[in-house]
Amino acid sequence: ARDGGAVLLTVKDNGKGIDKTRLLDKESWGILGMHERTRGFGGELTITGTPGQGTLLQLRLPLEAHHD
């Protein structure tokens, strides 16, 4: 979806869900990498999960170039 000057992406599943401790796990390079790449583009990434109910990933990226 598009929200003003940003693109919004939502991915949701009904799988086993991600535990909150896995989101903070320093060994979880995939999740850490997603957060780093998102910040590099000036965006926001939120991942939440409920064990036994699934995981929700929400990504918001600005459409204009991000300059530091």
Task: Count up the domains.
Answer: 1
Uncertain residue ranges: none
Distance between the termini: 26 Å
Q: Give, in spatial order, the strands making up the sheet with the most strands.
A: 1-2-4-3
Strand content: 35-45%
Order of H and E elements: EEHHEE
Largest sheet: 4 strands, antiparallel
At a glance:
With 68 residues, the chain is α+β, with helices and mostly antiparallel strands. The chain has one domain (2-62): Histidine kinase-like ATPase, C-terminal domain (Heat Shock Protein 90, 2-Layer Sandwich).
What does this entry look like structurally?
This protein has helices at 20-23, 29-40, and strands spanning 2-3, 6-12, 44-50, 54-62. It is an alpha+beta fold and 68 residues long. The chain has a four-stranded antiparallel β-sheet with strand order 1-2-4-3, with helices on one face.
What does the secondary structure layout of this molecule look like, with pairings?
Layout: E1 2-3, E2 6-12, H1 20-23, H2 29-40, E3 44-50, E4 54-62
Antiparallel strand pairs: 1-2, 2-4, 3-4
